[in-house]
Design a protein that fits this description.
Blueprint: E1 5-14, E2 17-24, H1 25-46, H2 53-86, E3 91-93, E4 96-102, H3 108-121, E5 126-133, E6 137-143, H4 145-149, H5 154-165, E7 170-171, E8 175-180, H6 186-200
Helix pairs in contact: 5-6
Length: 201
């Protein structure tokens, strides 16, 4: 009497109770027709047979993942090259090498690698602040270990910056991340780092 029966959804209704939603009879046939139509459209767009759609979609997914990985690598290389140029503009606050720069579209992993580059060039008496901008701001602060012993901690500086950007952050004394959504406050936040460091030093 029911005829065709297709389960279209399944989930938890209560503790120990599962809920299924299904279509039957004419509704089941209509659902099957719509799905076959969708499959045909996908096959036509891909210019392959219906049976080949799953394998082709999987192949496209792998190609997309590889392309994204390559794009991320290229962005990281571009950021590293740009950062090398930025290093030439390091300022001095008392005996400390200080760099505060804005770099659009840099992810957290790349920021970490840029911190390593900074510390490699300035293994002592160094503070690096990089703000990655997009729809929001991601801030990274790196501090050399000798300055950590003098009370200059990356987490404290990140909090100082993030509060101005409308959020928070934290991390280890030598490396910390934070940020916020108020991109318009970034120039003022970066400008405030000089005074913050002078007080700490």
């Amino acid at each position: 009497d029911v005829g065709a029966f297709f389960i279209v959804n399944e989930g938890s209704a209560a503790a120990g109770v599962r809920r299924i939603e299904a279509v039957t009879g004419r509704g089941a046939y209509d659902l099957a027709a719509r799905r076959i139509k969708t499959l045909k459209q996908a096959a036509a767009a891909l210019k392959i047979g219906l049976e080949d759609v799953p394998a082709r979609v999987e192949a496209l997914h792998e190609e997309l993942a590889a392309a994204r990985k390559q794009a991320a690598q290229l962005r990281a290389e571009l950021a590293a090259a740009s950062f090398e140029t930025q290093l030439a503009g390091v300022q001095r606050i008392k005996d400390v090498a200080f760099l505060a720069v804005e770099m659009p579209g840099v992810d957290k992993d790349t920021l970490g690698s840029l911190a390593d580059k900074f510390r490699a060039k300035f293994p002592e008496n160094g503070v690096c602040v990089i703000a990655s901008t997009g729809e929001s701001v991601l801030v990274m602060v790196a501090v050399t270990q000798d300055l950590v012993k003098r009370g200059v901690k990356a987490g404290d500086l990140v909090n100082h910056l993030s509060r101005q950007l409308g959020a928070g952050g934290g991390g280890a004394p030598h490396l910390a991340f934070g940020g916020g959504k108020d991109v318009s406050k970034l120039p003022g936040a970066l400008a405030s780092v000089t005074g913050w460091l002078e007080e700490k030093l």
